[in-house]
Write a structure and sequence with these properties.
The chain is α/β, with parallel strands linked by helices. It folds into three domains: 223 residues, no CATH class; 152 residues, no CATH class; 393 residues, Alkaline Phosphatase, subunit A (3-Layer(aba) Sandwich). It has 23 helices and 17 strands. Keywords: Membrane, Transmembrane, Transmembrane helix.
């Protein structure tokens, strides 16, 4: 006898797999949101949440009937039902695997984008072990109960049929009757069917009357929700930009009349050609180039503004949330250094730290993060743990000037630091505390640090298909280079270095294929790059000598010979270097080279698996050593004193020690994913510590301002830099950061000149006029123009972090259904251990007001309006339109 004779029939097992997987997925889906659901409403509407699952189960049970005579229709029916069961089983396994890894649930709408990207597939496959484990458990449970589930469901459907048929016996089980139900009704069958009708009517009533949010989202059932991955994606339209929409906030004048907080009399003309622009400028300077008519005549292309209307491109004079600080004085210590000509910037190195949390740059006592690390140790081991943790990132301490203290209260001993010649005490440049990222997706964040632009609030890197609306640093340096090609533009009174051309180079030891990063880098103006494909090329000058450490590529140390060559080239006075380098070791799965000696930073206390955090801490130490290597190479080549080193994190990284509900960055708005380091290091600049809720938008303006103020540009380039400086959305951190300013009078916006400001220092810009409107009582009242910091939450199109620079409130604003509002007061809850969540803003305000007062309620109302306006405005200025 065949061994398969003892195997369970396939259709019952497949059906059981669908039931178990579908209901388990629904239970997980509801459990993730249960705390934000009013208990009575949840009990009332809970039957409607599983109604779609019940309908799917019934349909598949009918498809998987196997008592009927075999035939081609029977085989087709079984194949369709079996396919739906396998899909549901697989999808539910993915959901549980993803939840076990991150604490979040899968957004199927973004699945298509990941499946179409080979590099992204490696990320998905990294969790195959947990997915396999989930599939095994679901399959085992389904096998154990398959016969009971199949038979009980069949008996239930037969009972329903009998209610309708009044005892009529069909020839085949579960086949639709050939006679009308109404023909067999009698009084007894009517009495039997009344309860069923009442239940159906009640379910329909509840389904119709329940609130759409969040119950429509919670009622989604597998495999139907998978259709989201195949919905038509939005189209990107390059260039065509609609006129700006009015800013939503209103204010009240002395007469009680409402006015928009900021609405210019008319948009500033966009199309006057800049006098400093060469005849054939590099990419990135379209809005200074020529009129739509001239462009159409020249290359028969379309207008950059739909219908030729004014106000299409980004214009700082029309930006209601831009706060300019160029009228303020430069910090006094910096002014003195610039006056004494002790600061020279011939080279710029921009280091982007993957998953670079501020609490890790450097690690030191006094943060919730550090306290959570210590909580894993037994009391007797705490002092030893402190001493080990505070010496984990010594280079970060030397770069920031934030020196940690050991368990005895003394400054940590940094004699073992890999950077042997750090900057002397009191020197080192700008160190920012309070910086936050503009996106928890790496490449969207890089747009802010390299181009001074806010990202596009859609999933993944759609920006790669569009024109970046501000010139990026490589494009600015390329524009500087065009003047170097003309001999009569050289200024012999300047140092020889000012005559050298800039050479922008991008380096990372991993692939640049993921999510079109290679296209984005080209659009930003990088013509030279060293990436994974370079290290593996048969023509490589230096081949990778080690093994790949993760699914993206190699350790940063594989770049050492390339970095050294670039520094030597700059030292030989041939080029002015701009190096952009992105680290990657601190990306999941936080692997390090085999010869790297790991240390144990985590204890055994608590119920959380500390292995992931320990791997991350070791990866952070590896990157800190690599930063020390870079600083040593600058010293050895002799260009350290003329190089500005900017260090910024792309985003943070949440672990179970931070947030027990969710880990990682994907659809996780926790504050640990947003606090990042921001340092402008120069050994000849005095140390200035800045506390500001700033973002990477400040990097480009600060670099331009520094180049001008330190006389590190020739006359022509200084004119260009001075003209570009006020065009960016961010502030220069050489001057005190302004969280808000009084709004100029409504009549004072009629500036129709598009010419850039004159070359002299931007400090001559006049201060804003006093407002004619009275402010509301809360700090960020609409009578003040405030710095609103927006941060997209990975993958970019589902949630938005909204903060203002002058108050400690934070709102997580959902951009799609299925996501909750969340409010935190960071002054009282800096680690966001107790966020207040709700499905509607009205409910959120009702919960927030008793705890934090009317001020917070007013801010929340404004934050939602500004956040939604910002989403629309960003799509407009990026030239992105949804189909």
């Amino acid at each position: 006898m065949s061994i398969f004779a003892y195997s369970p029939p396939l259709p019952p097992f497949l059906f059981s797999a669908l039931v178990v997987s579908g209901l388990a997925s629904k239970a997980l889906h509801i459990a993730l949101h249960i705390r934000s659901l009013p208990f009575l409403y949840f009990v009332l509407y809970s039957p409607t949440l599983i109604l779609p699952d019940v309908l799917v189960i019934i349909c598949v049970r009918l498809l998987l009937r196997f008592h009927a005579p075999e035939g081609r229709w029977q085989w087709l029916s079984t194949a369709v039902g079996g396919g739906l069961s396998l899909i549901t089983w697989g999808a539910s396994s993915i959901q549980f695997g993803f939840f076990l890894q991150t604490g979040a649930e899968v957004a199927w709408a973004a699945g298509g984008s990941f499946l179409s990207d080979p590099a992204a597939m490696k990320i998905l496959l990294s969790g195959i072990s947990t997915v396999s484990a989930a599939a095994t458990v679901l399959g085992l449970v389904a096998w154990l109960i398959h016969s009971h589930v199949y038979n009980l469901t069949g008996l239930g459907l037969q009972a329903i049929r009998d209610l309708c048929m009044g005892g009529y016996k069909a020839r085949y089980t579960l086949i639709a009757p050939s006679k009308s139900c109404m023909a067999s009704f009698d009084l007894r069958s009517l009495r039997r069917i009344i309860p069923a009708v009442a239940i159906c009517v009640s379910l329909i009533f509840l389904e119709v009357t329940r609130p759409e949010i969040p119950y429509d989202h919670l009622s989604g059932a597998l495999p139907l929700t998978l259709l989201e991955a195949f919905t038509k994606k939005s189209a990107t339209v390059e260039g065509c930009r609609e006129p700006a929409v009015p800013f939503p906030l209103m204010t009240v004048d002395a007469s009680g009349n409402s006015h928009p907080l900021y609405q210019p009399d008319s948009f500033v003309e966009q199309w006057s050609r800049a006098s400093w622009l060469p005849e054939n400028p590099p990419k990135g300077f379209s809005r200074w180039d020529m009129s739509p008519h001239d462009r159409a005549v020249k290359d028969n292309s379309y207008s950059y503004v739909c219908g030729g209307a004014e106000g299409g491109f980004y214009n700082p004079k029309n930006d209601p949330i831009k706060v300019r600080n160029l009228g303020g004085e430069i910090y006094e210590p910096l002014k003195k250094a610039f006056k004494e000509h002790s600061v020279q910037v011939n080279h710029v190195v921009l280091l982007t730290l993957e998953s670079g949390r501020k609490e890790m740059f450097p690690t030191q006592q006094g943060t919730p993060f550090f306290d959570n690390l210590l909580a894993s140790h037994k009391k007797k081991d705490v002092e030893e743990a402190i001493d080990r943790l505070v010496t984990m990132t010594p280079v970060a301490q030397q770069l920031t000037g934030e020196y940690a203290t050991d368990s005895k209260g003394n400054r940590a001993n940094l004699t073992d630091s890999p950077w042997k010649t750090p900057t002397e005490e009191g020197m080192g440049g700008l160190n920012v505390r309070g910086a936050m990222t503009g996106s928890s997706l790496t490449f969207k964040s890089i747009l802010g640090s390299h181009c001074g632009v806010n990202p596009l609030p859609v999933d993944l890197l759609e920006e790669a298909a569009l024109e970046i609306y501000q010139p990026c640093l490589p494009q600015i340096f390329e524009l500087f280079n065009e003047g170097k090609l003309t001999p009569d533009t050289k200024d012999n009174s300047k140092s020889e270095a000012l005559k050298n051309p800039w050479k922008p180079v991008f380096m990372q030891s991993i692939t640049d294929d993921y999510d079109r990063q290679d296209v984005l880098n080209e659009n930003m103006g990088f013509k030279h790059k060293v990436v994974k494909s370079t290290l593996e090329s048969s023509h490589a000058k230096y081949h990778a000598s080690g093994k790949e450490i993760n699914y993206f590529g190699y350790a940063e140390t594989e770049l050492r010979p390339y970095v050294w060559d670039l520094f030597e080239e700059a030292a030989n006075n041939k080029t002015r270097m701009f190096l952009s380098h992105v680290t990657s070791t601190t990306h999941h799965p936080w692997s390090t080279p085999d010869d790297f000696m790991k240390q144990s930073y985590m204890g055994e206390q608590g119920s959380i698996n500390h292995d992931l955090m320990n791997n991350y801490l070791n990866a952070a130490r590896f990157v800190d050593i690599w930063l020390g290597d870079i600083m040593n190479m600058l010293d050895r080549t002799g260009i350290a004193n003329e190089t500005l080193v900017v260090v910024v994190g792309d985003h943070g990284q949440a672990f179970g020690e931070d947030n027990k509900d969710m880990t990682g960055t994907y659809e996780n708005g926790h504050i640990s994913n947003f606090r990042v380091p921001l340092v402008f290091h120069h050994p000849q600049m005095p140390r200035v510590d800045i506390t500001a809720n700033a973002t990477a938008l400040t990097i480009v303006p600060t670099i331009l301002d520094l180049l001008v103020q330190s006389n590190s540009l020739d006359e022509r380039d200084s004119e260009i830099a001075s003209a570009l400086l006020p065009e960016y959305q961010g502030q220069s951190l050489l001057r005190p950061f302004l969280a808000s300013i009084k709004e100029p009078s409504h009549k004072g916006h009629g500036d129709h000149h598009r010419r850039p400001p004159p070359p002299p220092s931007p400090k001559t810009e006049p201060e804003p006029e006093p407002s004619q409107f009275e402010a509301r009582s809360h700090p960020d009242s609409p009578a003040k123009r405030s710095v609103w910091n927006m941060g997209l939450i990975n993958a970019g199109g589902s949630m938005l972090s909204v903060t203002t620079a002058s108050v400690p409130y934070r709102l997580i604003l959902p951009l799609k259904e299925g996501f909750e509002y969340s409010f935190t007061h960071l002054g009282e809850d800096p680690n966001e251990d107790h966020p207040i969540k709700a499905w509607t803003l009205k409910t959120l305000i009702e919960e927030v007001t008793p705890k934090h007062g009317e001020e917070s309620a007013a801010w929340l109302s404004d934050a939602e309006q500004v956040g939604k306006w910002w989403v629309t405005e960003q799509k407009r200025i990026w030239g992105y339109r949804e189909a």
